[in-house]
Amino acid sequence: MIQDYLTTNLNKANYELIDGGKRFYAEVKGLRGVWAIGKTLEECRLNLMTTIEGWLILRSKRNLPI
After folding, report:
1. Which residues fall within 8 angstroms of residue 51, CB to CB, at 6 or more apart?
2. C-alpha–C-alpha distance, residues 10 and 6, integer Å
3. What is the pTM of this model?
4. Could you say which DSSP state residue 33 is in?
5. Inter-residue contact 38 to 24 (CB < 8 Å)
6. 10, 49 contact by CB (below 8 A)
7. Cβ-Cβ contacts under 8 Å for 35 (sequence gap 6 or more)
8. Facing residues of 37 across strands?
9. Residue 58: what pLDDT?
10. Tens place of pLDDT for every residue, the chain, 66 residues?
C-alpha cells in the first residue's frame, strides 16, 4: 500500500533541469511542500521518494489527511 502510494506520486512528479542543466529538480504538485534536487535524475527520484516518505510520516504523526 505505501509502496503503491510512493510509486504513484513519483510518476506524477514534474522534473526539470536547473542550474544550467547541472541538477534536476522535482516536485509533486498534489503534495504541498514535497520537492527534491539531485545531480542525476536517479538521485533526484531517490531524494523525492525519501521526501514523500517523510511527508507521510509527518502527516500521520499529526493526524493530518493524506
Report:
1. 34, 35, 36
2. 6
3. 0.91
4. T
5. yes
6. yes
7. 25, 26, 27, 28, 48, 51
8. 25
9. 96
10. 889 999 999 999 999 999 999 999 999 999 999 999 999 999 999 999 999 999 999 999 999 998
Calpha distance 49→7 (Å, rounded): 8
Give residue 1's pLDDT.
83
Spatial distance between the Cα atoms of 53 and 34, rounded to a whole number of angstroms: 10
Q: Tell me the domains of the chain and their CATH numbers.
A: 2-61 (3.30.160.250)
Q: Give the three-class secondary structure for 26.
A: strand
Instruction: Sort residue 6 into left (φ over 0), alpha (ψ -120 to 50) or beta.
Output: alpha
